Fold this sequence. Notes:
By secondary structure, this protein is an alpha+beta fold. 50% of the residues lie in helices and 20% in strands. Strand 2 (12-18) and strand 3 (24-28) form a beta hairpin. Helix 1 (30-39) runs antiparallel to helix 2, helix 1 (30-39) packs across helix 3 (64-73) and helix 3 packs antiparallel against helix 4 (77-87). The model has no long low-confidence stretch (mean pLDDT 81).
Amino acid sequence: MNNIENIVDNSGTLLTIDNSYGHKIPIYNLERTIYDLVRSRSWFEIQDYKTVLKSYIARKDKELNKLMEYAKSFRIDKKIREYMEVML
């Protein structure tokens, strides 16, 4: 089983996970990852983009308030709100 630790940085919660060799790999939480996806949406195929957003919305552990906090602090809250209104 992987060991996950929480570390807080300026831009959100940064998690670290131990890989199979015992090295710590930094990863962001789910909401920060969704924010990064929306911010970089031009790099992705629209079908992949929609699939990821639908998967996020279907999750029971999603934190929409946290997602909107990230979006507001990085000034893309209007865009995320538009996507979420369509998907929900």
